[in-house]
# Entry
Amino acid sequence: MKFIAQQTAKGNRFERVKQTTQFIVGASDETDREIVRYTAGLYERLGLSRVYFSSYQRGAGDPGIPGEQTERPNQDAAFVREHRLYQTDFLLRKYGFELNDIYFEGDGGLSYDVDPKLMWAKRHPEFFPVNINRADKLQLLRVPGIGPLGAKRILKMRQERSITRLDWLPVKGKRLETLRTYAVC
# Structure
């Protein structure tokens, strides 16, 4: 991976080539904290363009590996774990979050009940409410219910006029209700 990173670094012959990797989550006894730490390191040190996650399917490996020996109570939980890792990955890659912005449970796992961005918001009430008309892109990206495309659209809307109602935003349904908790006009 280091060799590929050197060959694909800016200014080298293969700089347009993108390097990715994949974690098989649950094959070993790794915690989410460890996976996220390694993921952040791969982006920072090796310039990977993407990390993928795949939930380990019990019965697919050698009987001696931890994923085969540990009883999994619910396969759905494994898929929720995979989903939370993807959400965290997006926060690191696309939303300007740092490794220390990600919160883990006491066992080193991500919450199955609350997505990582909402968890950050709940732990930082001093940051909210964010004024949609004054916030920069990174501040908008911290608001639950606003993603990169939504932030871009809000910034464009503000060039034309002041936003006086959250209903005008390109957010609907449950995301809009969540947004009302964390943003004002």
In short: Residues 42 and 48 are 6 Å apart (CA to CA). Helices lie at 2-7, 32-46, 66-69, 75-94, 116-123, 137-141, 148-160, 173-182. The chain has two domains: 2-121, 124-184.
